[in-house]
Amino acid sequence: MFPIVRCRTLRSLVGCLAAVLFAATAQAGTIYGVNHTQWAINHFSVDGHSAVDIIGAFQGGGGGWGYAPPAQWRPGLTVRVDWETGVAGSKGFPGFADRAKYKAWVAKNEAQKRQHTQLVPVPDYTGQKVCGITVHFLPCDQLQVTTSCYPYGAPEYPIKTPLRLPVPKTCPVK
């Protein structure tokens, strides 16, 4: 809950605003991603809160701040995840000297980018400490999320999916 304070001067008003902002974000946590796919996650966001750009294939990354789930979990709770997949790194980079080769390389990389949006159910966190949100990017553009405070790979971490998943020959039709 927000602190009750009285602000009488400009200096105290600044302090009051800082106290309110701190209280509003005190329950907020980081946004982290775990990429179980062969594609780079160029960027992603959770409910409009941006996370760190580029998580390479079969890697984790994070650093976005400000995701705060509701104080109480409720059935049907979801988050909206927006993300872009593509290639990462400089594989096949021809250099800048030959402009035609460079432009073809850029065009090939751009053609592989895909935009995605998905509503993802948030598992019940009743009675648990919540530490932001972790999004798991799975093959076939599937997602899982958790609000667990444990790091990925810890015995208590709820998602047990291995980091390196095989590339499926086909994906279910959406």
UniProtKB/TrEMBL annotation:
Where would one find the signal peptide in this protein? Answer: 1-28
A Pfam family cross-referenced in the UniProt record is DUF3304
Superkingdom of this entry's organism? Bacteria
Key words of the record: Signal
* InterPro entries per record: DUF3304
Q: What is this protein called?
A: DUF3304 domain-containing protein
